[in-house]
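Students often ask what a 'structure token' actually looks like in practice. Rather than answer in the abstract, let us consider AraC-like DNA-binding protein, a protein of 280 residues. Its sequence is given first.
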Amino acid sequence: MLKKFDENRQDLKPYGLTCELWQPKIMERPDRHNEIEINYLPEGSLSYLIHDQKFKIKKGRMIVFWALFPHQIVDFSNDAPYHVITIPFSTLLSWNLPKRFLDMLFRGELKATTYKPSNPVLANQIFKRWANELNRDTEVLKEICSLEIEAYLKRFAYRTMNATSSIEKVEPLPINLVEKIAVYIAKNFNSPIKVIDVAKAVELHPDYANVIFKKAFGYTISDYLLEQRVLYAKRKLSITQDSITSIAYESGFNSISRFNATFRKFSDMTPRDFRKEFST
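Now compare that with the structural description of the same chain:
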């Protein structure tokens, strides 16, 4: 059964260790989950807005990225299904991947890279087998799949670190006004910017910028800006031991009280409680 993105899906809800066939669709909002995501396209192409840039993933290519970065399909070439693997953050860290590779992944550098398997037919067969076996209620098969996916990702990391000629950089696509707003916020959210600064950057009146942005993303610019700051703070809380105060200011908030109130608004918990639950 093909999966499609659920627009009502809870933000940051994990998928778990999965390998499934997905039906491409335009996403009305970004998805976010604290897992590594691998997409492989046997056919067709996808255009993603990942964090702050737009990329086209072509037929026969694979992309690996940290799915805590907001990612959103904004275009696709046909209805051909594509493979999606999700790997829990804790599982990934237990695999002892090269530190340099993980650093690139968590900085978002791999969102701009795709890899083309040398044997697309074999790659497609492997992904299909994982999808079939992970959906069975058999723990032994699930453990075997986990080991195979670990080895597959280690090969990907090895090629990334030692054979950069096999990694293809994807050129950014032109983006429209709404996407320019999202990109500007993604690049500047931890600076003391306001709605008027965002509108000025894309040469629009603030009211009009808000109207077209909310129509496209379902958020006001102000709420989206605050959410990006909270999202960044969550990443820092989960993977570093930096003080909550320093994280608050680094995320773009000008006071601890404002940070705590906004964090609770978007997370239904305090920063301290979030760190206790999700820190790795």
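One point worth highlighting: The chain has a mean pLDDT of 86. Ask yourself how you might have guessed this from the sequence alone, and why that guess would often be unreliable.
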